[in-house]
Structures are given as C-alpha cells and as structure tokens.
Amino acid sequence: MEYTELNNGVKIPLLGYGVYQIPDHAECERCVLDALDLGYRLIDTAQAYGNEEAVGRAIHRSGIPRETLFITTKVWITNAGQDKAAASIDQSLEKLETDYIDLLLIHQPFSDYYGTYRAMEEAYRAGKVRAIGVSNFYPDRLVDLCLFADIVPAVNQVETHIFNQQVNARKTMAQYGVKAEAWGPFAEGKNGFFTNPVLTGIGGKYGKTAAQAALRFLVQQGVIVIPKSTHRSRMKENFDIFDFSLSSEDMQALAALDTGKSLFLDHYEPSTVEMLSQFQL
C-alpha cells in the first residue's frame, strides 16, 4: 500500500474501500471484513449511508489493531450546525465502536456548514478526530472555507474519474494544501466505462483491466481513491494497482478522455440543493 501525507502530517492510504449503497448491515459487514482481509486499511462510510454500525462491527470482528486502520465518515446536511453536528459526531463514534475517527468530512456544502465545521474543529482539538475536511465542495466554497476557518481542510472528496478529472478544482486544492479524494472513480459504469477502448487498451498493455488502469491513473497523480464493490474478486482486483506504472503517453491518452462535466449532480443547480436537502437520516 502507498500513502500520502495530509496537511497536518497524518498519513492516509491512497487506496481505500467505500461502502456507499450497501445499506444492508449484514452485507456491509461481510464486505468490510472481506476488504480488510484483502489488505484494505482505509474504510469510507458516512452518516447518510446508514451503515456506520456495520462498519464498526466489522472493524471489531476483524481483530486488526485500530491504529493500523483509517476510518472516514461524513456529517450529513440534517446534522448541520455546531450543536447538532457535535452530537452527531459522538453518535458516529459510538456506531463505529471507536474512540476516534481518522478523517471526518462535511458531506455536502449546504445548510449551516460553517457551524458544522466549527464542531469538527472542536472534535479535532479534543482528539476525537485526526483530520477534518469536506466533500463535494466546488472551488469557490472550498476557498471560502480555507480562508475563513481556523483549520484548513485536509481533504476534499469529489466526483473524480476519467470522464470528469477535476483538473482545475485539483489545482485549487493543491494551492491550499488540500488533498483530492475521488468518489465514483469508475463513474458507476456510465459512458461505457469498463469497455472504453482507451482504458481497456492501456490496461491490456500491463496485463491489467480497465478498472485497474483507471485507478492507477488517479493514484499516480496523488488522488486518493475509494472504489466500491460487493464482490471479493473485484475488491482484490481493485487492490492490485501498485505493481505497475502508466507511461507518460498512457497518462496523456487517459487525460484526453476528460469532459470536465459531472455524470451525476451539479451542485450549482437549485434542484440539486433541494433534492439533497430533503434526504432525512
């Protein structure tokens, strides 16, 4: 496993396992146990995923020393504001069966996210959290937070894949020392992702799959990735990306696939704000 260092000196694995859309607790627990058994040490969950308890049970059952794991969760919109966020952080700690969270993120840039961030700063100072950051923050909102918060976010987790590479957004993140983390690194299979001829051709050169080439493209640029699969064989495949490097020509070919557009949500659209804000935990 390769690591990258956050702006506060904490080291985070470049590759992790995400549990988005695994609401069934037994299934989620099984998946996390499989991922940990295969060597994953970064597990990414969220209050909104409804599976923090399953992640906590899997961590406990695994017997793996807690200090070797890196657990991420996120504060949802309905827990926004300093008091509600603070209470929700304690609830997440209890559900995850841990004394501390390695990385805590604001899940969406809506409602009183400044109040949420103040609660996260307090949790960080109290030792409940090792690093804090944000998710789905576009450059303007990220810069605003970087300039006016006491603690600069360590991470911004955003939609990032070969069709939406976040080139300009990542430049802004780098300017402020914020690490980029990719959700949806496979674009959930949209745009013929797994059969894309450029991806499959480049992967084939190294005896790798399109998925492995896509992940390697991101981690080779220092982007943290958290691919999700419920199949152990795919988890293993996704984990095996550190035994090869893409050539500069291959990197350029994959960079050319960027459309600069989201395949999911535009956070500037009023309808997106309305839709996400209606989701209750």
TrEMBL record:
The keyword Oxidoreductase applies. Gene3D superfamilies: NADP-dependent oxidoreductase domain. The active site is at residue 49. Keywords: NADP, Oxidoreductase. Substrate binds at residue 107. GO terms for molecular function: oxidoreductase activity, acting on the CH-OH group of donors, NAD or NADP as acceptor. The keyword tRNA processing does not apply. This is Aldo/keto reductase. Residues 18-257 form the NADP-dependent oxidoreductase domain. Belongs to the aldo/keto reductase family. It holds the Pfam family Aldo_ket_red. The record marks 74 as: Lowers pKa of active site Tyr. It comes from Christensenella massiliensis.
